[in-house]
Each structure stands twice: as structure tokens, then as C-alpha cells.
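New to this. Help decode both lines:
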Amino acid sequence: MDEQLERWVEEVAGGTIIASERPPGGGSREMYLLDVRRPDGDVVALVLRCEAGSSFTGTEICPASEAMVYRALEHTPVPVPRLIALAPDDAALLMERVPGTADLAGLDPDTHNAVMTSFIDALAALHELDVDELDLPGFARPRSAEEHARLDLERWAGLAMTGVAELDPLISYSGAWLRAHAPTRVERTVLVQGDTGPGNFVFRGDEVTGVVDWEFAHLGDPMDDWAWLDMRNRGPLPEALRDRYSARTGIAIDQDRVDYYRAAVDYRCAITTSLAVSRGGGARGWAPYLLVTERYLHDLAGRMSGLLGVHETADVPEIVATDRTPYFDSLLEGIRDAVRALDDVAAREQTRNLQILVHYLRAHDQVGRDVERSDLGDRVATVGSAAADPGLFGSLVEEAGTVGDEEMFRYLLRRAARRRLLWATLLERPRR
């Protein structure tokens, strides 16, 4: 941890840091688990979240905005950690560490169901709050049904425009389509957590002790949170939990709107990881963001196909080993052996990340030129001479997305299928 940041923590916490742990993994921000001993001998458990050059550093998705949410919810029925302080440069926030764990793995079915029931009660409590009574200055307030989706999507489009060096055209098309086809009905305006669900709440026993990670919070449609929940849960929740939420809030789960927002989730996630790639990495390194961006693009293609009712198959080049393939295979084998021999968690993770790049380079050596050649020919056939002008082609993609142009979307699906070849050896593995 940065020494200046460490001094700030000790000053606002009123004690001395006696233990500091940075958990493995992490997303757009770095997190530290801290123990601080105060002069009276008491030890307090704290959590520090800081920017550290993440995907959103310097944007409106910042610790200051997240801190505002924690303050607004502190005296509500929604269980959240108590905010201790926001750093003077708005680059870090310090919170009390609520007791429990975020890890649902290994729970027996009854306990798992009880924990998720407790979380659904917390989500219902959040969506029952009167947003006009929450102190959230600067949060955009929807004035129409469509703005419940559109305002946040416009924010993400702005992040992509200013922060992503080479935005995949499927992201541009999807964002334009989602903004142009926002739902025309909403029951009420709620505080949407965003990125809600397993992994972003803490529980002890079978009770949720704190809902955490509010960096994507905004005012919008409650079905937006249900889409995030479906993503984090890796599928819809049981009907009993959906019914419990509806009985508590009076809001029926509208699956059509959930499906719309589910595509919006992949759109936002693809922008998040693209930002990290453009910035040279984030809390998890650089190579993992390259891979997960392709995963989100694959998922986004499927979601958008469902929304538009358009499906497409592509003739993809054949993967053929080259004279260099054995070199890559030997390198991969050596890295795998090195990973198994390393005791240091951070070094092991960094070494494992190198495998991602070798897998990609191996595939690019085998089929990369064919993928690029096929894509260029397909793009020229679709848009003509504009294919050679990135700026003009980008404008055409945006326009096509706004009107739902089927020919452009079919091309983008074929493009995604070809690009998948470069990552297939990793994408076809079970997710970690």
C-alpha cells in the first residue's frame, strides 16, 4: 500500500495498522483488508477500496460517488458497511468491515437458499426506498420510462467514447440499439445497485450483514438489478425468491425487461474490461481483461441476437498447426509447470496470466491472418469503401444500431464468430 495512503488510513481511523491483506483477484479497484489498533487497545476491522489506475480512474464512476451512496443508505433498512472516510483526493474510501464472508461456495442447499432469501429481502428493502428522500446530489433522475435505461447507458457510451482506444463495433452497435429501444414501462424509480448479487454482499450464518460495491449505482428500473442478479447468479433465481421480492415490493418481475437489461449488463461489462485493456490493465493485470472482454463480446452477441430475433452462422477459417506451434506448446507446458511450483499467490497468478497471451499468440500464428483477411472482405461487402475508414465505419455502425439494421448486425455476428477462433482454447474451458 502507498505510504501516504497508509498514513491517511491511520489518521482517520485513529490508530495503527497492524495487519494488511490484499485478497487475490479483484475487479475495477484494489481492495485491502486492514486491522487497526487504537490507543485504547481496541482493534477495528476495516476495508479500503482505492483507484490505483483502474478502469474508471478519473471518471464519474469514482469512490466519491460510491461514498455518497454509503452515506445515503446508512440509516435505511438496507444493510451496508459504515463509511469511515473518503480520501481527500477522492481516490479511496475506507469502511468498517462487516462480519462474514462473500463466498457462497460449499454451502449446503438449505443454507444457500436461506442466504439468498436474506439477500432478496435486502434488495427489496433497497427498491422500496423513496429515492426523493435519499441524499444523492448529482445522480441523474429519469423523467420518462425510457430514461430509466437511457440515462445510464448514455453515461457508459460516454465512457467508451473517451476512454477506449479501439472499441469493438459490436459494443457500439449494441449500445446504440439499447438506447434507441429502451423499455417504455417502469413501475417506479429505484436506486439500482448495479453489479448486484453473489460476490457483492457479505453474510454470516444465513443472514446478509452488508451489501457492498456500489460503484455502478444509479437511479433507474428495478429490472436492471434483476438482470445483474441473473448474471451474477449465472441464471434466474428460483420462482419462490422472485415471488418473495414481488410480494414485498409490489413489483412483478418483467422477464422481457430483464432480458433487455441482461444485454445491457454485457454491454457495460464489455466497456469496463475494454477500458482496462486500453489502460494497460487493472486490479487483475492486463491479459485477463483481454480474455474476459472476448467473453463478454460473445455473451453480448448472443443476448442481442435474442433481442433482435436475428441469428447468423459464419464460415470460419480452419485452424492449422504451423511450424511454430510446437514452440508455443513447449512454452505453455513450461508455464504450467512454473505455476505449480510457485508458492507466492501473486506470482502464481501473474505467471498464469502469461498463459493467456501464449494461447492467443499460438492461435494468431495459426489462423490470425485468415481471420483478418476474411473479416476485411466481409466488411467491404457489407459497407463498401467505408470499410477502410475507421471513423466513417464507426459512424455507420452507430447509425445501424440505432435503427436495428439487420445486415450490419449479421456482419458483426460473423465477425464475432471469426474472432472467437483466436480465443477458443480459453473460452471453451469451464469458467473459473
